[in-house]
Design brief:
The chain is an alpha/beta fold and about 300 residues long. It is about 30% helix and about 30% strand. The longest helix is centred in the last third of the chain and has 19 residues.
Amino acid sequence: METIHLTYPETPDLVPSVMVLGFFDGVHSGHQAVIRHAQAQAKQLVVPVTVITFDPHPKQVLSNKPDAVRYITPLQRKLNRIAALGVERCIVITFTKELASLSPQQFVDDYLIGAGAVHVTAGFDYSYGKFGEGTMETLPYHARGRFTTSVVAEQTSGGEKVSSTRIRQLLGAGDVDVASELLGTPYVICGEVIHGDARGRTIGYPTANVVMDASYVMPRLGVYATRVRLQDGRTFDAMTNVGRRPTFYATGDVSIESHLFDFSEDLYGQLIEIEWMNYLRDERAFDGLDALIAQLKQDETAARAILS
């Protein structure tokens, strides 16, 4: 996939295409429906599909809070998922306050008409321009007769709208299996394995201590059945703890520790991916090591059963 990065006032080259608009955090099933619709339009018009997306999230810029948004798919992962859907081109526009100040008409003139749009589509609730005053209802007017438009209806699952917000809420509640259904794939985070205090090794459960990219959504604290993908492509079943290790520390930072089943190699310094499959239990403090080890054995049995 050709990827073009722009910062206002830079504008795209003119390439006739069907354009699809959205932030696409997670590239979930609702987003995929929009992209599939765009691809169907592009096939009829015999032009490529161009996705127009943004980075960082508008809320992160307009709220002046660096941590205003945690991402389901930080930018590179989002681009990888969009490319995997067969999209030919993606324009990533740096979201700034200057871009946000554009009128709806100027946004359309500069980034849609000026970029060669022959058809533009988005989800029903997409908005553009200053204060989000442009909507899918106003887009045909702002098109000035230069392109046609279509709107993809709300996508639902379990009677509720499929949205990035809903998926973030599910992850925060530990419902990683439901979140994965909406994503169409397991939720994944990436991080580097660092040295820890090696307590797990002394009790028969060595762990990979992972420093997660701070921009990812953190799942609810607790123990999970997971899969871990190594840099060399190998994947291992695992169980992963997200928490403060209350058996050993009264307070502390949240850490992520994965115990890979049937694995004994050195992972320090490697970037690994963790796929979150199922929530097993809350994190809790134990009276001693014997109680902790007994519980870890139960967790391993449960995780192996889920992942088998």
